[in-house]
Amino acid sequence: MANDTENVVGVAKGPLGDHEVRSGKCPVDHTKMQSMPTNHPPVQKKAGECPVDHTKMQSTNVPQFPSECPMRAGEKDNLNPNNMMPAQPAQQPAPGQPFPLSTERETSTIPKADGSGNWVYPSEQMFWNAMLRKGWNWKEAVEGKDDPQGKPLAPDDIKNIIRIHNINNEMAWREILKWEAAFHANECPTGPKLKKFGGRAQDYSPRARIRSWMGYELPFDRHDWVVDRCGQDVRYIIDYYDGGQVDKEYKFALLDVRPALDSFGALWDRMTATWWRWTRSPGRSGTDASTNSAAAATAATSR
């Protein structure tokens, strides 16, 4: 969680370390390699594969950590398909990390579809490692180059990012519960459970694009959550809009939450909510779609 954090690699976005040979990086300088002699037997090598057999390399005195190289972010073999995060959470400090981070994790209020309890949010260290895998340059952040005012990154900043991340997910879940309670309480009396989720920040929904054509800003993030409605998978789209300054409760995002138009039932829910919005909402506004109300956050033209 954010997601998925579901979705973070690099320092909340981070460094690969200052070692001459970095974790996950091929130690051979391919730019300086000369061509093979013409009489050299052919070498069998897969495209993009490092010619060094890492399985035969001997261990050194340098501590070994799970590779956080962002070039490995596309390798999904070791990722949990339900949240696209490492199956084994990386809680070790990254090489060269400038300050220690907490490994404590907060349990959410969001139940898992498999019945194994509630989803657990990433720790500060997991968030840092995830951002590294995404290619984040923590050195620039620590030097203040990522901040408009030149403020250097500090441990408290990571703590605040985690709080904002967790609050955003709790807000999203509450909006989903409003939809489910309004339209499906009878068919699923035990309530929905979250099955899987993923981030799609650059994949703008039709609704978000239509709003941008009308002069409104695009969302800074998008998540798709698949909810288990007592045996039926239902996908929800969550667009996150910038709401200004972070308040004392670590809220700043405006959420537009609605079921994706994957079925006639979802279309009917959206149409009904839109009707309610225009006939029952006092002081309604036909242009402000970024609200925290399930009914006001729907439009039949979006998916």
Q: For the residues shown, what is the average pLDDT? A: 73
Summed up, the helix count is 5
Give, in order, the helices and strands. EEEEHHHEHEEEH
Number of DSSP-assigned strands:
8
What distance separates the N and C termini? Answer: 22 Å
User: What is the 3D form?
Assistant: globular
Tell me the β content: 15-25%
**Going across the major beta sheet, what is the strand order?**
5-6-7-8
Q: Taking Cα atoms only, what radius of gyration do you get, to the nearest Å?
A: 23 Å
Q: How does the major sheet shape up?
A: 4 strands, antiparallel
Structural class: alpha+beta
Range of helix content: 10-25%
List low-confidence stretches: 2-37, 45-77, 285-303
What does the model show?
- It is a single chain.
- The chain has 303 residues and is an alpha+beta fold.
- It has helices spanning 124-133, 138-142, 155-184, 206-213, 264-280, and strands at 79-80, 85-86, 107-111, 118-120, 193-199, 221-229, 232-242, 253-259.
- It has a four-stranded antiparallel sheet. Strands 1-2 form a two-stranded antiparallel sheet. A two-stranded antiparallel ribbon has the order 3-4.
- The two termini are 22 Å apart.
Give a quick rundown of the structure.
The chain is of the alpha+beta class and 303 residues long.
